[in-house]
Amino acid sequence: MVGTHMDESVDIVLVGAGVMSATLATLLHELEPEARIEIIERLDTTASESSFAWNNAGTGHAGLCELNYTPRAEDGSIVLDKAIHTNTLFEESKQLWSYLVEKGNLGDPARFVHPVPHMSFVRGADDVRFLRDRYHAMREHPCFEGMEYTEERSVIDEWAPLLLDGREGDEPLAATRVADGTDVDFGALTRQLLARLEEEPDEQVRITTGQTVEDLDRNDDGSWTLKIAGNDHTTRTLRARFVFLGAGGASLHLLQKSGIPEGKGYAGFPVSGQWLRCDKPEIVSRHHAKVYSKAPIGAPPMSVPHLDTRNVDGTPSLLFGPFAGFTTKFLKTGSVMDLARSVRSSNLSPMLSVARDNFSLVKYLIDQVRLSHEQRVDELRTFYPTAKTEDWRLEIAGQRVQVIKKDPEKGGVLQFGTEVVAASDGSLAALLGASPGASTATSIMINLVEQCFPEKFASDTWQQRLHELVPARADTLADNGQLLRDVRHRTHTTLKLADAQPAPAPVA
Ligand SMILES: Cc1cc2nc3c(=O)[nH]c(=O)nc-3n(C[C@H](O)[C@H](O)[C@H](O)COP(=O)(O)OP(=O)(O)OC[C@H]3O[C@@H](n4cnc5c(N)ncnc54)[C@H](O)[C@@H]3O)c2cc1C
Asked: How far apart are CA 467 and CA 295, in angstroms?
C-alpha cells in the first residue's frame, strides 16, 4: 500500500477502471510495452460503475435493431449512415477481443460475449411501413446481411414467443431479426482485460483500487501531477506524462480541475436509469433476443424501450427498460452535489440554453420518475402482454452524464454521443458522454491514441502493431462486403459466436 505523500512517477495514468480505461491500457501496452501505466480506481473493485453488467444493457450495439439509428429522411428514404458506422465500429471491438483471445490473453470469451439475436418490433400501420422500408434499405448492405423481416404473427411467435403471449386484436405487427447479434457483459470484459494486464510478467501496468484522484496540475515540463486520496486516509502525488480521464460521469469534474482551455464551456446533464428484471427460469427460457422498439415522443434517444436476454455470470435473465429519471449525481456512487459542483461561469449559459430548449425532455424525465412499479410493468405489457407484476423487480442502472457544450447559435446544445476532449499538446484527454458507449470503446480509444500521440501513431512500428490488433478498420469494412464477411468469420469463430454466423460467401 502506498504511504502518505510519496511522490512517484509513471508514463501514463488512467483515472477510473471501467471498460474505457481497460481498453486504452490494453492498446497502449500493446503499442508501447515499455511504458509504465497506472490505473487508479476510487472504488474497491474495478468495473463497478457504468461498465458493471447490470448498470448497462449489455447490447453489443451494431445498428441491427436500434430504430433511432435509421431515421427517415425528408424524401422518405431511410438514412443508414449511423447504423453502418456503429456496425463497423463494433467490428473493431470484436477484432481486438479476438486478437487477445487468440494470443491467450483474454480468457474465455464465453464469459463476456454471447450470441443473442437482435430484433426490432413495431405495432401500428405507420411503424410497420417504416420497418418494412428500413428492412428493404438495409438488407442490401453487407453490414446487415442475413436480416429477416416478417409481418406474420406466427413467425414473430417463433422468434420471440413472449411478444405474442395473450396479444389480442388485429393490430398490424412487424419485426426484423438478425441472428448474429450479441449480449456483452462489459463488466466481465473489463475485469478480464485488466487481469491480463496485471498478470503480465513485465509488471508495467499497475491497477490501484480504493484511491480517488482529487486534483491535477500541469507541471512546467508539460507533465501532470495528480493528487490522490486513499480510502485509508493516505494521500500521495503521482506524476505522469499522459493522463486519461476515464472516470465516467466524474470525468467532467476532473477535466474542469485540469484547467485546459479545451475543456471550457462543457457541462453535464445527468440521467439515471432503471430496469425491470426477471430471473424466473420458466419465463427466461421463453425469450432469446434483444427486442428494440420505438421511443415515446419526447424521450431521449437512450430511452428506446427494449426487452432483452442477458447473460451475466453464466445465468440468463430478462431485462426491460430503461426507465429514465432525473438525478444530480454524476456517478451511481456519486454525490447529489455533483451537478452543482460542475457549474462554472463558462458553462452556465450553455446549461441554461439547454434547460430552455429541452422542456419536453425535462417533462419526460419527471413523468418517468413518477412511475409506479405497476405502471412500469404496464409499459412492459406493450411488449409482453401477459407479464405479471410479481415476476419483475426493479434494478437500478448506471448513471449517464450527457454532454452539454457551447453552440454559437443556440448558446448551448445537449449531445447524446461520446466526446473526447484533449489538450492541444496531447498530454491529457477526457472522455465525456455515454452512447453508444462500451461497444465502440476500441474505436474511441484508437482515435484518442491518434489524437494524443500523433507522431508515434503515424510511425511504421505503431501502424504495424495496430494492424495486428485490428486488421480491418471501420471505414474499410463499410465499403468492402467480402472483407467484412471474412473478418466476421474470424471474429465470430474466435469469440464462439460462430453458430449464429453463416460461412463467408465465395469471392465472385
Ligand atoms: C443505463 C445504461 C445503459 C447502457 N447500455 C449500453 C449498452 O447496451 N451497450 C453499450 O455498448 N453501452 C451501454 N452503455 C454505456 C456504457 O455502459 C458506458 O459507455 C461505459 O460503461 C463507460 O465506461 P467508462 O469506463 O467510461 O466508465 P465507468 O465504467 O463508469 O468507469 C469509470 C470509473 O471511474 C471511477 N472514478 C470516477 N471518479 C474517479 C476518481 N476521481 N478517481 C478514481 N476513479 C474514479 C469510477 O468509480 C468508475 O469505476 C449504457 C450506459 C448506461 C448508464
From this structure: 39
Q: What is the DSSP string of 164-232?
A: TTT--S---EEEEEETT-EEE-HHHHHHHHHHHHHH-TT--EEEE-SEEEEEEEE-TTS-EEEEEEETT
Which residues is 8 bridged to in the sheet?
Answer: 238
pLDDT of 4 higher than 60: no
Residue 305: is the preceding peptide bond cis (ω within 30°)?
A: no
What does pTM read for this prediction? Answer: 0.95
Question: Do residues 432 and 244 touch, judged by C-beta distance below 8 A?
Answer: no
Spell out the SS3 assignment of 443-476. Answer: HHHHHHHHHHCHHHHHCHHHHHHHHHHCCCCHHH
Q: For 177-214, what is each residue's pLDDT tens digit?
A: 999 999 999 999 999 999 999 998 788 999 999 999 99
Q: Choose the residue to mutate in 56, 69, 116, 419 for probing ligand 1, maximizing ligand atoms within 8 Å of C-beta.
A: 56
Cell representation of residue 72: 427517415
Q: Which residues line ligand 1 (CB under 6 A)?
A: 15-21, 40-43, 48-51, 55-59, 61, 186, 212-213, 246-248, 250, 273, 322, 331, 397-400, 431, 434, 436-439
Bigger pLDDT: 95 vs 350: 95
245-276 tens-digit pLDDT: 999 999 999 999 999 999 999 999 898 899 99
CB count within 10 Å of CB 83 equals: 26
Spans of all domains in the chain: 267-417
How much distance in Å is there from the Cα of 189 to the middle of ligand 1?
A: 13
CA 64 distance to own-chain centroid: 15
Which atom of ligand 1 approaches the CA of 211 most closely?
43
Sign (positive/negative) of CA torsion 229, 234, 236, 242?
negative
What HEC string does 405-452 produce? Answer: EEECCCEEEEECCEEEEECCCCCEEEEEECCCHHHHHHHHHHHHHHHH
| Ligand 1: centre distance to CA 46 (Å) | 11
